[in-house]
Amino acid sequence: MSGAETSGVAGRFSGTLGGFRLEAEFALPGRGLTALSGPSGSGKTTLLRCIAGLTRLSGELTVAGEAWQDARSFRPAHRRPVGMVFQEASLLPHLSVRRNLEFGWRRAQGPRTIAWDEAVELLSLAPLLSRAPDELSGGERQRVAVGRALLSQPRLLLMDEPLSSLDAESKAEILPYLDRLHRSLAIPALYVSHDPAEIARLADRVLLMRDGRVSPAEAPPRPADLTAARARLAAMTPEERERHALAAIVAGLTPSD
User: Fold this and answer.
1) Positive or negative, the Cα torsion across 37, 52, 91, 85?
2) What is the rounded distance in angstroms from the CA atom of residue 57 to the CA atom of residue 209?
3) Looking at the domain covering 9-221, what would its CATH class be?
4) For the chain, domain boundaries
5) Distance (Å, rounded) from C-alpha 117 to C-alpha 105?
6) What Rg value do the Cα atoms of the chain yield, rounded?
7) Residue 53: half-sphere exposure toward Cβ, Cα within 13 Å
8) Could you tell me which of 192, 161, 4, 190 has the C-alpha nearest to residue 87?
9) What is the pLDDT along the chain (257 residues), one digit of tens a residue?
10) Which among 34, 30, 57, 35 is positioned nearest to 46, based on CA atoms?
11) What is the distance between the alpha carbons of residues 84 and 242, in angstroms, rounded to a whole number?
12) Which long-range contacts (CB under 8 A, 24 or more apart) does 147-150 make?
């Protein structure tokens, strides 16, 4: 996509919500997709909400050289150029696909670096423009949600398990589009997922989160590693598979489809 590479994202948040303590420090490069993974309850969604300005904890956040939060200032959520995609597409049901996209287009702050035609073509939305959200498949709804987020001209894209509510067929439908998006994106994206195959396909790097803390970035698993793991699993006896499953559950890992 058009637009110069930004200078990246750096953040640090500290605070308590209920009984949960967040002590997270992280950095993202100026472009590409970083996966955020970890057990349920580790703070992934809380971290995204802090970045978006929806949850306020003490800390600092700098995006493309601009301070969105520090000891003296806090930019509210409606003034942060962030595109967000959630587990559910959350399209406006009374509006057509075109008008849902226009809703994102009107929210744009600053210069337009992502053109309308570019987003529509990237996600193959042209055949859907006249349709209503309830006429779309799950994968189609998520493609529209991603398009709406991009057309808001974000400086940062946040995606919170966008495929977790989809069945296997819908996931297979949308993954090629997310792959194209990842290769084209000229802004940083933070993508929450539990699925190692999804991470291996889409991510440039992985941040691991546990107990409110973020570990340093590492390379995502390679598809070849996943193939070898599946072969090893197939060769196990039922008793061995049960022991491995119990160990994963104790470690707080979540199985994916």
Assistant:
1) negative
2) 18
3) alpha beta
4) 9-221, 225-257
5) 12
6) 19
7) 19
8) 161
9) 544 344 799 999 999 998 899 999 999 999 999 999 999 899 999 999 999 999 999 999 999 999 999 999 999 999 999 999 988 878 999 999 999 999 999 988 878 888 999 999 999 999 999 999 999 999 999 999 999 999 999 999 999 999 988 888 888 888 888 988 888 888 999 999 988 888 888 999 999 999 999 987 666 666 555 565 666 677 777 776 777 666 655 445 555 44
10) 57
11) 38
12) 147/101, 147/104, 147/119, 147/120, 147/122, 147/123, 148/91, 148/100, 148/101, 148/103, 148/104, 149/83, 149/84, 149/85, 149/104, 150/83, 150/104, 150/114, 150/119, 150/122, 150/181
Contacts of 176 (CB under 8 A, 6+ apart): none
Q: In what order do the strands lie in the sheet with 20-28?
A: 20-28, 9-17, 58-63, 66-69
Kindly tell me the sign of the dihedral angle through the C-alpha atoms of 50, 54, 58, 61. Answer: positive
Residue 207 buriedness (CB in 10 A; 0-12 / 13-18 / 19+): buried
pTM: 0.81
For tokens 């070898």, name the residue. Answer: 228
Look up residue 47 and give its two tokens: 């971290």
Q: Which amino acid is at 62?
A: T
